[in-house]
Amino acid sequence: MDRTQALRALKQEYQLDYQNEIRAARDLLASGIRGMRGPEGVLNLDNRESFVALGQARKKFVEQLERAVKPLLDNYARELEQEAANLGLDGQGKASDPLMESLHNALRNLQASAQPAASRPVQPQAAPGSNGQRN
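The chain above was modelled as a monomer; its predicted structure follows.
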């Protein structure tokens, strides 16, 4: 795979990431929030069988949640679309655009920062109280 093909594949991957995120936000807008996940478990708002689901607290919570979240999701999807367009990921740019080079560099930097600290080269640090100056 030559450089142009690699950059084209990278652009398609970024494009798919944005498209999937936008689709997920739009799907939530259309179908509503049906669950929430936290570190201690999942709140299943679609459950209609438990006594909690039959209560007024659940009904009120779901109504308030949907009223609060819908404008945020709509705004998020629009901002994602704009961001994708600004990055040339809306199908309008070419693989030879200089932007593709900057996307490739951004991915490399993200991958390098995601490496465990033990595998990164150690940077020399100044001794405490030296303010980074050498004598």
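The radius of gyration is 23 Å.
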